[in-house]
Amino acid sequence: MPINKTQLISWLKKLNTVYTDKKEYLTELDAAIGDADHGINMNRGFSKVIEKLPAVESKDIGTILKTVGMTLMSSVGGASGPLYGTFWMKGGMVLADKEEINSEDFFKFIEAGVGGILLRGRPNLGDKTMYDLWAPVLEKIKECADNGDDVSAIVDTILPVGEKALADTIPLQAKKGRASYLGERSIGHQDPGATSSFYMLETLKEVLAS
Ligand code: ADP
Ligand code: MG
Ligand code: MG
């Protein structure tokens, strides 16, 4: 079954709860290799998203996603604000006028979103950023969508891929963002942005399973 609008709204609301619960953890991860604000940034951004939701939740999915993006863009700041802002805005653009998200739409959404991250941040694979989470996940989504899998099956399949990609950021040396200033000292820590991106997948799985 496709993701319906109720599930989409519930995904965004749950994400707000998750970023509230994980605020300290994400900030700790960022304290090790950045400026100790990633949890604060994500929490602030999604609280704003929740404030904006009532005004758009009856609109099409494209409008909802674009609102998420614009809200994050204007409230988060730092590196992750423009990156996540662009992710959701680009994703919203390819889902204009949609009332549900089938597996092909889901692939297009994530593909466009990851395209936005690439455009904004110019990360390369292995630079220890959120892109290191999204690249293998996107590849797996494409494979599953081409196979004709439905969205919940796709989300189930990508979760372990994301989990591995997240752990794989630990031994990397950061080449982009603040963590890159640390050079070799960035090795041995999990990337905060890849972690907050993983929560998007984990939370979506929870929503689709409930
Ligand atoms: P800031 O570094 O400005 O304080 P955050 O702490 O909110 O912003 O976000 C840091 C995260 O942003 C990093 O962990 C990384 O995943 C991501 N990031 C930083 N720079 C880039 C980039 N150029 N491309 C992709 N992702 C990036
Ligand atoms: Mg930071
Ligand atoms: Mg910062």
Automatic annotation (TrEMBL):
Record bears the keyword Kinase: yes
Sorted UniProt keywords: Kinase, Transferase
GO biological process, one term: glycerol catabolic process
InterPro entries cross-referenced by the UniProt entry: DhaK_L_YcgS, DhaL_dom, DhaL_dom_sf, Dihydroxyacetone_Kinase
Membrane-crossing residue ranges in chain numbering: none
GO cellular component assignments: cytosol
Single GO molecular function: glycerone kinase activity
Pfam families: Dak2 (PF02734)
Domain annotation DhaL: ranges: 6-206
SMART domains: Dak2 (SM01120)
Name this protein carries in UniProt: Dihydroxyacetone kinase DhaL subunit
Source species: Desulfovibrio gilichinskyi
